[in-house]
Amino acid sequence: MASSKKSVARWLSVTATAAMLAGSLVACGSSDKPVETPDAGDVESALDEKSSLLVWGWDPAIEPVAAAFEAKYPNVDVEVVNVGTNADHYTKVQNAITAGKGAPDLAQMEYQAIPQFALSDGLADLTELGAKDLESKYTPAAWNNVLVNDGIYGLPWGTGPMALFYNSAVFEKHGVEVPTTWAEYTQAAKDLKAADPAVRITNDSGDAGFSTSMIWQAGGQPFKIDGEKVEINLQDEGSVKWATAWNELVQDELVAPISSWSDEWYQGLGNGTIASLTIGAWMAGNLESGVPDGAGDWRVAPMPVWEAGDTGTSENGGGAFSMLKGSENKIVAQQFLEFMTASTEGQTITLETVGGIPSTVAELANDEWLNREWEYFGGQKVNQVLADSANNVITGWQYLPFQVYANSVFADSVGQSYENRTDINEGLKAWQSTVAEFGTQQGFDVTSK
Amino acid sequence: MSLTKDTETVVGAGFRKSKKSWSGWMFMAPFIVVFALVLLAPILYAVYLSLFETRMIGGSQFVGFDNFLRAFKDAQFWDGVLRILKFFAMQVPIMLGLALAAALAIDSSRLKGKNFFRIGIFVPYAVPAVVATLMWGFMFGDRFGLIGNLNEFFNINIPSLLSANLILLAIANIQIWTFTGYNMLIFYSSLRTIPEELYEAAELDGANQWWIIRSIKLPALRGAMVITTVFSIIGSFQLFNEPNVLKGIVPNSITSYFTPNMYAYNLAFSGQQHNYSATIALIMGVLTMVIAYSVQHFGTRKDER
């Protein structure tokens, strides 16, 4: 008896040691590997060798871009895997980083997600790989999105300046003018609902990305980040302006409480019961592929403004591709990044596949792109409206360095205001306190106003 | 655990001073290796994780039991625990009651086509939780589902079971649908072990069906009752799939800390708080063990009396 008990104890201690070792190994896995800036010769020989890249992302344009890159460099094998959209994708990227293996070389990364992954040491700083020289290729707004504490944590791939996508057939049928200001928008919402009780001007069940974009356009700047200092005020002028206006739309049931990207949502967009979307420019391609029933009916107008004569817009979504710190093939990965985001070839494939707004100066000013008549939108020159919005984005907006987490708990607070049709401002305050507490706990110097 | 104990006793009794005492361990080795790798190692690793705190700014440091103290004061965590207890109190009696009634009915030999019923009740158990949740989720909605259609057709106003205050009922419904057949099978197989002589004796004594149920069948089911209750406790405490899938349909009805499991998951994978998440998981593990053990202890002691 005694001897067997002892061996059980030994087993336990062996396993314990193994577990501790495993723990410390994981900790080591993410340590720095200094990279020297490669010269042209290094790049050329790296591309000539047999190598493979793993790319994670959900954008349909990645596959054709990867195929073009493989055709150009036959020795490089690029594998593209869609592991999920948005939150699902980030969860898997986070898991892979924590596990210390299985992570891709490159991952799609919305601008709002970059700081969280960069600060938690998951992404490679591309400065060492010569990314600094590429700055002039991208629009300043796009470039600004990939910088975190002077490091470059991705290359911008597309931006999401907002516009009003609307179903012109529905508006015409009910004789409702397309709104240009938010006051007109509320009125149009009432008119549409009065004309047909099944129709709503839009859907909104409480979406963090949409709310922050709307606050941004209203002139709010609820998050101010300076290094480790984070100032949060979700009751600043712009935030209150948006929340107060939106209260009426939610409380009077003028917007459909349907979550974006759900089956119901696509259904509503197709059958005309959701009459418009104020959303990022990338929605053009998504409408075309996801809502075939609406072909010919949809149009694009500038995003409504707060005062007639205003021009300021904001961004919604849009993103970059980042390199994971653990990538063992950094030189080739960097070449693919540049091909995908900065080269005319890569950007052309992307724009043809999903539409949207390029992040590069050259493509944004390209007449052929600007004057393209989009069949789905009844021949409208959609890109001109979207490009105008891109030029009018209000500068100075910042996302939290832990926006992915903040957005994941948005439904706990602001979502409850939507659910119970209570004051959205109260929801914003509750969100602020959760987020501020998280920031403090994560070691940031948080001021919550 | 009990397996290990038995082997120890055998080894100890039979080969106390013999060198061959290792042969028993060799037979046990595959089990012990797997047990250590998939159960002990992760638990120990979780204990290790729970003693540290990793911050985005400042890295990882040893904090002792701070994470446990934080959990005991964490309103969101206890909100989830309370919700699970409420869920358990609501769902388990109904589910086990239905399972019991079904088992007795099938066993009564008065039911025609009992094989069909037995399989019919058991079939939902074979449906994956995610599929079952989506299926029910689409029926519950008042705008798009069955309830919505009923409302529209009869011009009535059944509230959506997916609204924040009713969603627990919706989840209970899904779990009852899924697990009644499984529990029925456990009850039914224990009913089959009752010797025929008891029934014959009862009949000779002039007992009717109700007396047979009360005096023979129900006492014989006590062991199965304890087992199914313990399984249900563990099941309730692990509640994750159903709310997590429903959150995709109705994000505002289900908070990120709806159940402790969801809380731990979101802490780890959205909030990058792996250390605190491990702490929550450990506390839930201990809590489940304590409650399940006391039910078993209480139940079997009554059985022995």
From TrEMBL, chain A:
Coiled coil: none annotated. The keyword Lyase does not apply. It comes from the Bacteria. The keyword Signal applies. Residues 1-27 form the signal peptide. Keywords: Signal. Gene3D superfamilies: Periplasmic binding protein-like II. CDD domains: PBP2_TMBP_like. InterPro entries: Bact_solute-bd_prot1 (IPR050490), SBP (IPR006059). PANTHER family: ARABINOSE-BINDING PROTEIN-RELATED, BLR3389 PROTEIN. This is Sugar ABC transporter substrate-binding protein. It comes from Jonesiaceae bacterium BS-20.
Automatic annotation (TrEMBL), chain B:
InterPro entries: ABC_transporter_permease (IPR051393), MetI-like (IPR000515), MetI-like_sf (IPR035906). The chain crosses the membrane at residues 25-48, 84-104, 116-138, 158-182, 220-240, 276-295. One of its GO terms (cellular component) is plasma membrane. It is found in: Cell membrane. Residues 81-295 form the ABC transmembrane type-1 domain. Its main location: membrane. One of its GO terms (biological process) is transmembrane transport. The keyword Methyltransferase does not apply. It is a multi-pass membrane protein. Gene3D superfamilies: MetI-like. It comes from the Bacteria. Keywords: Cell membrane, Membrane, Transmembrane, Transmembrane helix, Transport. It holds the Pfam family BPD_transp_1. Belongs to the binding-protein-dependent transport system permease family. This is Sugar ABC transporter permease. It comes from Jonesiaceae bacterium BS-20.
